[in-house]
Amino acid sequence: MIMDKHAYLIIAHSNLEQLHKLLLLLDDPRNDIYIHLDLKSKLDIKKITPPHMKYSHCKFCERVNVGWGNVSQIQTEFNLFELATQVEHSYYHLISGIDLPLHSQDYIHRYFNGKNFEYIGYSPSWNVRERVYCHNLFLGKLRYPNRYVRGGFQKLRQIYNKFQILLGYRRKQPKYEFQAGCNWVSVTHDFVLSLLENKDEINMLIVLMKFTNKHSLITRNSEIVFIM
């Protein structure tokens, strides 16, 4: 184990040129790279790794058909975390295939050196009532290619949610503190191990929360506190 090693966990779907640029910017002896390529992606997985990478090794996790606002995103993240923790890293950065670092790897490693913080963003103004306690319809349609069809499904979902709130309908949910935010994080090895240790509980919670608008789950002190 090299304690200053970082793991970059990339969820990729399209735009091979930008993905290559990202991988070359992450190419560093201090980095390991783990990639999930969406099962429905048209990219050739054999061409994902740029031929002129020198230092980092790219590994691919089991592929999932990822849907926006769907539990498939959580499964994708689990697959990446499980693969990456086969080797201990000081930090795990979960990013998308269309992200690019704003600083050099020297700057990034220097910034995280000696730190033991979890970098997880959340929004205090998040509408818990609508996203958790309403029966959300058409989540699989909210990324429909045609913007008019997509907008129609979005409007129908919003109307149906307001109707539920007006009638006082409130779905029964487990007694957790719910928060939400971006699913892209930078977290420590101990944090990821805690997440994986709670995988069964998280999967049970996912079943209970079917038809909520969710992206990913985060734990803190063995308690599930974030649904994003």
Could you walk me through the main structural features you see in this protein, from its secondary elements to its overall organization?
There is one protein chain. The protein is about 35% helix and about 15% strand. The protein has seven helices and seven strands. The strands form two sheets. Strands 3-2-1-4-5 form a five-stranded mixed beta sheet, with helices on both faces. It has a two-stranded antiparallel sheet with strand order 6-7. A hairpin with a 2-residue loop joins strand 6 and strand 7 (about 225). It is globular, with a radius of gyration of 19 Å. The two termini are about 30 Å apart. About 25% of the residues are buried. The model is unreliable at about 215-228 (pLDDT under 50).
Summarize, please.
The chain has 228 residues and is an alpha/beta fold.
Quote the distance from N terminus to C terminus. Answer: 32 Å
Structural class: alpha/beta
> What about the largest sheet?
5 strands, mixed
Dominant shape: globular
* Percentage of residues assigned to helices: 25-40%
Question: What's the rounded overall pLDDT mean?
Answer: 84
Number of beta strands: 7
Low-confidence stretches: 216-228
Instruction: Report strand order across the widest sheet.
Output: 3-2-1-4-5
Order of helices and strands: EHEEHEHHHEHHEE
Separate helix tally: 7
Strand content: 15-25%
- Radius of gyration over C-alpha positions, nearest whole angstrom: 19 Å
